[in-house]
Task: inverse folding
């Protein structure tokens, strides 16, 4: 999917992209982890590799020193996945650590994938970063 300013933002906000996650993709720093999480989801929808990389904590399991190879991995994931729905289930804010629990519905090669994840975010130098995620057992459908 190509980003288009007047499109409804894929993050589930029901707002236009230009009034929602686009400002973060264009450089504004999200003021909390929930906004960061949603903007990362829409960055996946639009294949904005650099944004995903920029907002990933260096201790994340997917973190790669080799940016070119990392970009290739994200690109192939984005190209082979349809991001159909994001639903926020819970948000626990904090000064330096925050948690967002969400449900996401994706599909890949005609196969539906849905899962719930509790994501952990750390604030590093005043900027929220995605640290890690834990899949939850009782997935909604
Ligand atoms: Zn959005």
Result:
């Amino acid at each position: 999917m190509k980003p288009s300013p007047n499109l409804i933002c894929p993050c589930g906000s029901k707002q236009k992209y230009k009034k929602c996650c686009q400002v973060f993709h264009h450089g504004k720093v999200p003021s909390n982890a929930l906004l960061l999480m949603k903007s990362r989801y829409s960055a996946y929808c639009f294949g904005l590799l650099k944004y995903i990389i920029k907002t990933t904590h260096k201790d994340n399991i997917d973190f790669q020193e080799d940016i070119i190879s990392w970009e290739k991995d994200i690109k192939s994931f984005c190209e082979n996945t349809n991001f159909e729905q994001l639903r926020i289930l819970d948000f626990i804010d904090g000064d330096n650590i925050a948690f967002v629990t969400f449900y996401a519905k994706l599909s890949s090669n005609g196969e539906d994938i849905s899962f719930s994840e509790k994501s952990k975010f750390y604030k590093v130098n005043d900027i929220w970063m995605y640290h890690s995620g834990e899949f939850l057992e009782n997935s909604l459908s």
In short: Residues 88 and 102 are 4 Å apart (CA to CA). The chain has a mean pLDDT of 95. The chain has one domain: 17-135. The pocket of zinc ion is lined by residues 9, 11, 13, 20-21, 38, 42 (CB under 6 Å).
